[in-house]
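Model the whole thing, not chain by chain.
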Amino acid sequence: MGHETLLIGSPNSGKSLLFNRLTGLAQKVANFPGITVSLGRGALLGHPELTLLDFPGTYSLAPLSGEERIASDGFHAALAREDLKRVLCVIDATRLGKSLNLALQVLREAARAGRDVLLVATMIDAFPKGRDRFDVEGLSAALGVPVYGVSSKTGEGLDALRAALAAATPAPSPARFHALDDEALQDEARSLTVRFGAQGALLLQGQTRLDSFFLHSLFGGVAFFALMAVLFQAIFTWAAPAMDGIELALGWMADVLVPRLPHPMLQDFAADALFGGVGAFLVFVPQIFVLTIIVGLMEDSGYMARAAVICHRPLRAFGLTGKSFVPMLSGVACAIPGIYAARVVESPRKRWLTYLAVPLMPCSARLPVYTLLIAAFIPATPLLGGLLGLQGLAMVTLYLFGLMVGLLVSALVAKFAPATEDDPPFVLEMPPYRLPAWQPLLRMAFDRSKHFVTKAGAVIFMVTAVVWVLGYFPNQGADLGASWLGALGRLIEPLFAPLGLDWRYGVAILTAFLAREVFVGTLGAIFGIEGADENYLPLVDQIQASGLGLGSGLALLVFFAIALQCVSTVALLARESGSWRLPLSMVVAYLLLAYAAAWVAFLLAGLLL
Amino acid sequence: MAITLWALPKGTCSRVQTLDGALPQAHAQRLRELGFFPGAEVRCVHRPAFGAPRVYAVAGACFSLEKALAARIYTEPCAESPHGP
C-alpha cells in the first residue's frame, strides 16, 4: 500500500493553510488565486511514514492556466502511482459552488482509477453553531464519500482528519461516479450547492464593504498608489538601520580580524575579497527582507487580487493583463518568483509578454547597484521639507524607468503578435480579506534572505576570489594596472570607453552578467587591492575618489536598469518557456538596448549637465 | 428581456440565461464551473470606473470578469431572493 496522500482543491480553498496545519511546515500561504506554484511535500504530523503532497489550486481538471495544468497533470500521474494511498480533496464550505465541481471531477477520475478519496470541508468556523452549522454528515451521505469538516483557523476537526488519514485501509471512490458525464456532474454540483451551501453570502458582506473602498474609482486608485509609495519608502527607511548596523559590524570585524591573520597575503585577501567584496553585498539583505514581507502582506491579505483588477485596463494597453501585475510586482523583489508567478496568466501569449516584462522590473539584485551608484553620484539634498530626498527621488525614477521599459517592450512585441479569439480572457476570484499570519510571513522573508545570502553569496564569493587573484598577481597587489586583471581590463576597455567608463568598471560589468549584485563585490575587491594596506573603506567613498563622471554614473544606472544580467533568470526562463530561444534572444536584445540607452544617457548628461 | 452581465447595474440580482455561443468552448466550460451556468443567480457587486473588470457574486464567491466575457453572458431579471447569491 502507498504512503502518499495528495492534496487537491480549488484556489483560495484554504488548501495550503490546511497542508501547513497537517504537516507543521510553512508552505507559503497567500491569498491570491494560484500562489502554490510548485509542489509542496511534507510528513503528516505524528505520522512520519505518511507523506502529504500539495498541488497548486485549480478550478477544474480541464486546465486553462499553466499552473492548473501542473495540478491536473500531476493529479493524473499520481493516480497511476503505486505510492499513492489516497486523495484528499479540499472543498471550501463557504463557497461550495466552485469547490464541488472540482470535487466531483476528482471523485470521477479516482473512481475510474480505483482510488480512495476523502473530502475535507474547510472554513467551517465561518458558519454559525447549532441548527445552521455546515451539514458535514448530510453532504457525506449525499455523496457516499467520507467528508471531514475542519477549520485551519481554530484547529477544529484537525485531529479527526489526521486520524482518518493515518487509518490503514483506503476504499475506492464509489463506482457511481465512474460514468458521470460533464453535464450530469455540473447538475449534481449545482443541486448539492443549493442543498448544503451557506444561506446567504456568509463572507461576502465584509468583503463587499472593503471592496467598495479598494475598488472605488477614486479611492481605490489613491489607495493603490499610497500602498506602492509605502512599499518603496519602507525598503529604504525601514531597512536603513539594519543596513547601517551590518556595515558597522563588518567594519568592526574587519578591523579586529584582519590584523590577526598569519600572512600578509591572507590579510589582503580577507580585507579585499571577503570584507570588501562579499561584505559590500551583505549590506543589502535587510532590503530584501523588508520587500519580501511587504509583497507577502499584500498577497496574504487578499489585496493583491484587487490590485490586479485595478491594473487590468492600464496593463491591457501594453498587451498584458491584470494578472501580470503579480509576476511584475514579485519581479520587484526578484525575477525568479516573478517568472514562476507568471504561471497564473492563462493566456500563453500574455504569459510570454509577461516574461519579457518581468526581468526589466527593478529587482532587488539591482538595488545594491542602484544604492551604491546613487550614494556616489546624487547628493542627499532634502526635498519637500525632508519628506523625500533627492536620492530617494532618483531611486523612484529608476524604478519607474524599469517599469516603463518593461511595459513598452511588451507593447511593442504585442503589436507584432496580435491576440487570437481563443486567448483566455480575464477572470479572477476576489478572495475574502484576511489578517495576514505573521509567523509564516516572517519565516518566508527569512528563508528568502537566507537563500539570497547562501546562493548569491556563494557566487559572489567565488567571483570576487577569482577577481582578487587576477588583480593581486603577479605583483602581490603592488600595482593593479600591471596585474592580470589590468591586462584583461585594457583588452575590453574600448567597449566601455564610449560610456566614459574605465577598465575597472568594465570588468565589474562583465562579472555582473552572472548576477547583478556581483558588480558591487567585484568593484569592492578591485578598489580593495588598489587601496593597498588601508583599512576597510566604504565603497562609495572609493568610487567618488576614482574620478568617475556623473554622465558615466548615469550610463551605468541605465545599463543596469535594462540589461538581463542574471544566469538564474535565463535558466528559469528556458525551463518555463520550454526553449532557450526566448531567454537567449532576450539577453542579446536587452544588452543591445541597455548599451544604446546608456550611451544616450551619457551623451545627454554631457550636453545638459 | 435579456441583458448582458456587463450591463447589469451595481447591486442588481439577475439570473443567467445563456452563454454566448461564440464563446470558445473552454471558456464557456470554465464559466459554468465557476458557477455562471444557466439558471444561476448572479449579482453585480462592483463596477469600477474606466472599464476595469467588474465583480460579480455567484454561489457565495466573487469573481471579476472583463468585458469580453461579461458582455457574452445573457441574463434575465429575477425576483430578489432574501439571501442573494
